[in-house]
Write a structure and sequence with these properties.
Mean pLDDT: 75
Structural class: alpha+beta
Radius of gyration: 35 Å
Largest sheet: 9 strands, mixed
Helix content: 10-25%
Low-confidence stretches: 11-31, 140-154, 217-231, 275-282, 314-320, 359-367, 444-448
Shape: elongated
Strand content: 25-35%
Number of strands: 26
């Protein structure tokens, strides 16, 4: 009997004591089940020289609020807030030397966690496509010393300053760079965010984007050059004038509807076409044709081909009146046929006077049934006009003069075999800014 009682007592302790111990361990585990942890924030690896930093260390677990201390240091110009509710690393580093630091975080229960990291600010020592740490571009064209790009006088360009860093990243410095152009004021004007308006006199000027003492030539003090020298020659003049016509036409309230231009594959501009006779007669004009790039006309507007317009009557002619014409080619068939040979409008290619007015969208589908929509501007009057009976053809001789070699119009416009002449900068800038995307029904979606 005593043996049974003793045996039961031993069995009790064998079963219950471990349970009691297990309960205490569980309780301790619950107290430590949410330990405080801290890691270096990802933004630490993205620190750049002279660029302001706001990087918060964010612990997890434990019981808030946390208090912060650190040992080591931070790059010159940077610091970290300490004490209760601290942990914010901020400032703009002035150097690129790496500094090691260890941050300690304590929660209200006294639990502690630490993290160590090295902060090495990236410097403006990277080399961009222009050969410098900072590159300036405008309307898709790199503007660089030595080469320089000719822009039409009074043209306005949005310049962009892009920095290239030693960690392989880039940064848009346009809103924080200091812009200047010399000699001033003859060079034109520059806004604080890089909007450049060229001067009216023909000369070579310098546009500079500077950031914390570093200019877009790597810091040697030689500014980027943008020239406002007019490119001479009849062909270049026609190209430049076509750009001016396109800009002015698109600024008119009664101009070409944006919804129509966005569905055009190509544009033909014929500035100052001379019309003769009264009521009936013909015309003779020279202009340019440019199309969206790529096989599906999804790319940016490209190099122009010189074109000739001739023959036909225009409905409301006045003897000797000079008229600007703008033609929108609404499908690839119209573009291909015109680039092959002489095309008679209304016969070989269907044509119609285009709709006008920014709000003119109701009848757009009716107009888009035509392959070509035509517009005219004379003495301030802008309207859709019929050009039926007129002919359009590539001007091979003018293309040879413009590009310095014999080159086929199709190779220029559709195959991109030549670069745009400098005189086409305004025309392409206007079209790429006003109609950057092809929204025609036959165009492939931009993401395809």
């Amino acid at each position: 009997m005593k043996w049974r009682q003793s045996h039961r007592l031993k069995l009790f302790w064998l079963l219950c004591l471990p349970g009691a111990c297990f309960g205490q361990t569980s309780g301790g585990s619950r107290m430590e089940s949410n330990p405080v942890s801290v890691y270096s924030p990802p933004c630490i690896s993205q620190v750049k020289q002279y660029i302001a930093v706001n990087c918060q260390i964010t612990p997890t677990g434990g019981a808030q609020p946390y208090s912060y201390t650190f040992t080591g240091g931070f790059p010159t110009g940077m610091s970290m807030s300490t004490g209760m509710g601290g942990g914010l690393i901020n400032g703009a580093p002035t150097g690129i030397t790496g500094v090691q630091t260890t941050v300690t975080v304590k929660d209200v229960r006294g639990a502690i966690a630490t993290t160590s990291f090295m902060i090495t600010p990236a410097g403006l020592t990277g080399t961009g496509p222009c050969g410098s740490a900072i590159c300036v571009t405008g309307a898709g064209y790199a503007i660089k010393t030595a080469e320089g790009y000719t822009i039409t006088t009074s043209a306005t360009l949005q310049l962009t300053a892009t920095s290239y860093w030693s960690d392989g990243t880039t940064l848009d410095l346009t809103p924080i760079a200091t812009w200047a152009c010399t000699p001033s004021p003859a060079c034109g004007s520059l806004s604080a965010n890089g909007l450049y308006t060229a001067g009216s006199s023909a000369s070579t000027y310098h546009v500079t984007a500077t950031f914390s003492g570093v200019t877009d030539d790597g810091g040697s003090g030689v500014a980027v050059t943008a020239a406002t020298i007019q490119v001479h020659g009849k062909e270049n003049d026609r190209v430049a004038n076509s750009g001016m016509v396109m800009r002015e036409v698109l600024q008119l309230k009664s101009g070409i509807p944006a919804s129509v231009l966005q569905k055009a594959e190509c544009v033909i501009v014929v500035p100052s076409t001379l019309k003769f006779a009264v009521g009936v007669g013909g015309s003779y004009g020279r202009g340019v044709m440019t199309c969206r790039g790529g096989p599906d006309f999804q790319g940016p507007w490209g190099a122009p081909s010189m074109m000739a317009l001739g023959g036909g009557g225009f409905g409301f002619q006045v003897g000797g009146q000079a008229t600007d014409f703008v033609l929108l080619l609404m499908n690839d068939r119209a573009a291909s046929s015109i680039l092959k040979s002489k095309v008679k409008l209304g016969a070989t290619a269907s044509a119609a006077g285009g709709p006008v007015g920014r709000e003119s969208t109701a009848a757009t589908d009716l107009f888009l049934r035509a392959q070509i929509l035509s517009y005219s501007r004379a003495r301030g009057l802008f309207a859709g006009v019929s050009l039926e009976g007129s002919t359009l053809r590539p001007d091979k001789r003018a293309n040879k003069k413009l590009y310095g070699k014999a080159v086929d119009a199709k190779a220029i416009v559709l195959q991109g075999e030549v670069s745009p002449p400098l005189s086409a900068l305004e025309l392409l800038s206007v079209l790429n800014s006003k109609s950057p995307t092809n929204r025609s029904a036959g165009a492939a979606p931009p993401n395809q």
